[in-house]
Structure formats: structure tokens, C-alpha cells
Amino acid sequence: MSLQFRIKLFQHLINSSIQMLQSILAEIKIGLDFPEKLKIRDPENVEKKLERLVEGGPDCLQVITDFDHTLTKFKTPDGLRCDTCHGIVDNSSLVEEEFRRKTNALRDKYYPIEVDHEMTLQQKIPLMIEWYTQSQNVLVEYRVTKSQIKEMVLKSRAFLRDGAKEVLSMLNMHRIPVLIFSAGVGNILESVLEREQVHFPNIKVVSNYMDFDECDRVTSFQKPLIHMFNKNENALRHSTYFAELQSRRNALLLGDSLGDVHMDHGMPSSHKEEGVVLKIGFLNDKISERCPEFMENFDIVLEDDQSFKLMQLILSRIIKDAKQ
Ligand SMILES: [Mg+2]
């Protein structure tokens, strides 16, 4: 064995030992552009969850994610608020001024309630149902058409987070199921996915869907209504989605609202005992007021971050270890 070869072998062994000693969380933090945006209540527990996710590999994994301001950005680099599914229509120049006036008035009234950290969930729920029902009624009243929606999406300010396209492609390539669970509008969010060319076959959308007449005008919304605080097993009552994902005991759950925390509740109880769910919360708005409750409910909180870099790093690690 030559001296050069022995030095190389020695260096390799040292590097491997350092890597083994370094926690997964520490490794991920190094990869982040702004690690200070990461807030974790219990780092030890997160490390354990990451270890189990890596151990299970891509074959045991599923992803459950919210859409508005989770897969999509909350704001542009110059600080402009990005569109939600409803916002795409509400802020469009293709709708009449009167339509915009009505929907903006609804948002001004109800959005502060959604993010109010002093109100209880029980106080918020009836008001959120009121908001959603009234917004849907306005869309039906103005008979918005399929082709208008497509054009509105093209011209909208609804953008996927930086790196989200790559993450969705990676998930598709490894056949990891993705559930997009949204209180927005299914037809509109699918149109955004199509525009971004990421409407992959591994994606299942559970959301509020519109019905159209023979002239492609909206006539009604399908029931039951999914609002931001009933995104749990009730909204999936008649679906066999989770039951069909037998081997997928581990999950990554992503959301930007406390209403997203229970999106995994439809997973079978056996999965909950054997598997692990890592919950990542994007804290976009009212950051200092809402941080404590976000940290209480999500394993990892990302403050004011418009990227999917954390997801990229976690997923790469899960996939990399499976290859070795
Ligand atoms: Mg959201």
C-alpha cells in the first residue's frame, strides 16, 4: 500500500467519522442560507424524527402539504403580497370592479380574524365558514368561466416557493405520494400546477372544486366545504387515500396555518405508532405574535422564508442515504 493511498484512506476515515458525529439537523442547518430563520422548540425530538425519516427512506415516505402560501410564496422579493387561490380571481383585472370590491371587503373583514392569536379556534370556525361561503357565492354570482380562470392564473401573482418545483420533481421521480390539502379552490390550484408544469401523477389534491355549466361558467361549489380549520380526517371521510398508502408510515407535513397541523389525522393509527410525522410550519405573517403558538404546534418553524430549501435538504438526505 503506497503512502499516498494510506493518507487518502486515513482522510476518508476521518471525514466519515466527522459525518457520523454530526447530527442530521446540524448538517441541514449548514445547508440553509438563513439558518437563523429556523425555530425549533425541541431539537432533540426533531433529530430523532429526522433519523427515523432517513432510516425509513423514500419508500416509507409521503408528503402532506397545504397549498396557499406554503407551496406558494407569501410575498415577492420586493415585499408585495402573493396571491392565494381566491386572490388570483379577486385581484384580477379580468373581473369587474364590483366583484373585486365585494371580495376585498370580505378579506378585509375576515383575514384579521384568521390570524388573530387571541381568538380561540371555536370562535374562529363559524366566521371562517361565513367567509368561505360568501367568497364562493360571489364567484358563482359573477359566473366566472374556465377560460377566464386559466388567464387569471397566467397573469397572477401566485408563484411557487424557490426550490418547490425541484422538490416536487424529486418527489415525483422517487414516486413519493404528495397530498395537497387545500381550503382554496381545487380547479385554480391545479391550474397553477399546470402552469408550472408540476402537475405530476404522484399528486393528489383534496380541495374545494367548482362545478361548471355547458358554457364553462361556474354554477356551484362541491360539498363538503373545506375551510382552514377542518383540514383533518373529516374532510377525507369518504376517501381511502391514506389507507391505500400502506407502506408510507412516515410523513413530512407542511403548512402555514395552525389549521394545517392536523392534516395527517387521516393516517391509520398503525402508521402513527410505527412511523413519524415531521411538521414544518411556514410563519409568514404577524411573526412575533404567532411564533410561540407555531413553535408549540410545529416541530420546525421557518420565519419569513420564501424558499423550499429546507425541504430540499431533508429530502436529499432521505434519498441519499437510501442509495448507499
Ligand atoms: Mg395556507
Automatic annotation (TrEMBL):
It catalyses: a ribonucleoside 5'-phosphate + H2O = a ribonucleoside + phosphate. One of its GO terms (cellular component) is cytoplasm. It holds the Pfam family UMPH-1. Keywords: Cytoplasm, Hydrolase, Magnesium, Metal-binding, Nucleotide metabolism, Nucleotide-binding. The keyword Transmembrane helix does not apply. It is found in: Cytoplasm. Its EC number is 3.1.3.5. One of its GO terms (biological process) is nucleotide metabolic process. It comes from the Eukaryota. GO terms for molecular function: 5'-nucleotidase activity; magnesium ion binding; nucleotide binding. Belongs to the pyrimidine 5'-nucleotidase family. This is 5'-nucleotidase. It comes from Folsomia candida.
